[in-house]
Design goal:
By secondary structure, the chain is an alpha/beta fold. Helix content is about 35%, strand content about 15%. The strands form three sheets. It has a 13-stranded parallel sheet with strand order 1-2-3-4-5-6-7-8-9-10-12-15-17.
């Protein structure tokens, strides 16, 4: 069929799947038809973070002169250029420009790391005026309570800094004030976001590691701080996420938000995601994350989906890790911290759970932890999806003449037999992934971050670590399909990294041929 005979509706759908990086812009130059179809697609989601003043002015002028473009935009990402002394983004947010230019905006993401706190209040005022706004993402070093109702807001993501060396927290009153601000922020959600269904807090991305915190003076008088702020009840909240994105751990005081939300909404939350960055001790005698998390999970009778991620942590630039880099960042430490975190889960009753996803930064030399996790999941009689992803395997500490070697159980027939035996029979999706997106050595090490660089070089001076990882990942074993499908009749998706699923026992030549259930 010639391309010219395709209806515009079909061709528009095809063009919408093109890559945003450059292909979409090239399509504008093909002909007039492609231009008219691609322009709304480009304007549907606009990403303009950290744009300089001249480019921003040009963009605004373009939308103003072409009034038909603004209504196409459903998602807008804005960021302040820290070197823009004209504060262009602040001026646009503080006026009615966004509402006038983009009347049907559903999602807005704001990188406000250099904003003054007063500008955030103006931003909330804009959100309150937006007619169709359903999702807001804010990157800011601190919490700023909402001031006006945003009645249609369904999802709120608040990413803040992880720096506990900020000028506020170093003040004698700063720690108590931060706790008070956190409660005040939560309380504002109750009155300003009555339709909120999903709440995400924490260091969502690397942007949480920088920014200007202008809460220099105390915002509340001592008498006001004595007034207890009751934690809110968000009637429609169903999903909650505590994020330590890219292994960046927020300062421990912010976990009071997570603890409060989970405690107040344990009878209604249906999905919880919790990321843990392992990066040293708990400052200020904070409650361990394992205790905080699992004590909140135990009372959730309606919980259907649980995601847990244990990442190799890295502190923000202004934080320090106690002890030497080798002791703080070793895989043995990650394994120990993972076990300490998960050990608080014993006795948990996941009867209503339908989906369970867990990611370990390191696959340990033994399967003690994994077996205990699967033992708890045996209580989940209706579990439909299980995803267990491992990072690189643990390795032995070499002596003077020893070569570093990995220890792994992943290809041992007897161990995998027991693992499969413990899988819930109701599964529809099964993923046990060793060579997934978290086990590339550079990704695991967070190599681009400063604290890990010297350690990685010392561990892998001759490249032998990466070579061993590659050899392990390239090994293949075979599992007869009936081993899984006879046990789990509803299984529709099965992927076990490093293994091939074959038709029957006769097709297995090596590896898992001796598997017995």
């Amino acid at each position: 069929m010639p391309l010219s005979t395709l209806p515009n509706e079909i061709l528009s759908q095809v063009l919408s799947h093109t890559s945003p990086s450059g292909t979409r812009y090239n399509c504008l130059l093909v002909n007039r038809r492609f231009y008219s179809l691609m322009l709304p697609i480009i304007y549907r989601s606009l990403q303009i973070p950290f744009i300089n003043h001249n480019r921003l002015v040009t963009f605004i002028r373009t939308v103003r002169r072409n009034s038909f473009l603004g209504p196409y935009t459903k998602s807008l990402c804005l960021g302040e250029d820290p070197f823009d002394n004209k504060r262009s983004v602040e001026r646009i947010i503080g006026s009615d420009d966004i509402n006038k230019l983009f009347p049907f905006l559903y999602k807005i993401e704001l990188f406000a790391m250099t904003f003054e706190r007063g500008m955030l209040y103006r931003f909330w005022a804009y959100c309150a005026r937006a007619a169709c706004l359903g999702e807001v993402v804010v990157h800011y070093p601190d919490l700023v309570p909402l001031v006006q109702p945003i009645k249609g807001l369904k999802k709120l993501t608040w990413s803040f800094t992880g720096c506990w060396g900020s000028p506020v927290l170093l003040l004698p009153e700063g720690w108590d004030e931060t706790k008070w601000i956190a409660k005040k922020w939560l309380k504002s959600l109750e009155s300003c976001t009555p339709e909120l269904e999903t709440l995400v807090v924490g260091c969502v991305g690397r942007e949480g590691t920088w920014g200007i915190l202008d809460r220099i003076g105390l915002e509340v008088e001592a008498a006001d701080r004595k007034d207890e702020i009751a934690l809110p009840k968000l009637e429609k909240l169903r999903e909650f996420e505590w994020r330590e994105g890219e292994g960046i751990a927020p300062v421990a005081v912010w976990r009071d938000i997570a603890a409060g939300v989970m405690e107040e909404h344990k009878d209604q939350l249906e999905r919880v995601r919790w990321e843990l960055a392992i990066c040293g001790g708990e400052p200020y005698s904070a409650k361990p994350q394992g205790v905080l998390f699992w004590s909140g999970i135990r009372g959730m009778e309606k919980l259907k989906k649980l995601e847990v991620a244990l990442y190799p942590g890295t502190p923000v630039p202004s934080q320090s890790v106690e002890g030497s880099a080798a002791s703080a960042w070793s895989p043995e430490r990650h394994t120990a911290e993972s076990y300490k975190f998960m050990s608080k889960a014993w006795g948990w009753d996941p009867r209503g759970l339908e989906e369970f996803t867990i990611r370990f930064s390191v696959i340990s030399a033994s399967t003690v932890l994994e077996r205990k996790v699967l033992g708890e999941l045996e209580k989940a009689k209706g579990l439909k999806k299980l995803e267990m992803t491992f990072g690189i395997p643990a390795f032995s500490s070499p002596g003077d003449e020893e070569k570093m070697e990995f220890h792994y159980w992943y290809y041992q027939v007897d161990v995998m037999t027991e693992i499969i035996k413990n899988l819930p029979t109701t599964l529809e999706t099964l993923i046990i992934n060793f060579d997934g997106k978290h086990d590339v050595c550079d990704k695991y090490r967070q190599y681009e971050f400063g604290p890990m660089e010297d350690t990685v070089d010392k561990w892998d001076e001759d490249g032998s670590i990466r070579a061993q990882i590659k050899d392990i990942v390239n090994q293949r074993r075979s599992i007869p399909k009936k081993v899984l499908y006879d046990r789990m009749p509803n299984l529709s998706t099965a992927y076990i990294g490093g293994y091939d699923l074959v038709g029957g026992i006769g097709e297995v030549e090596e590896g898992m041929a001796g598997i017995s259930l």
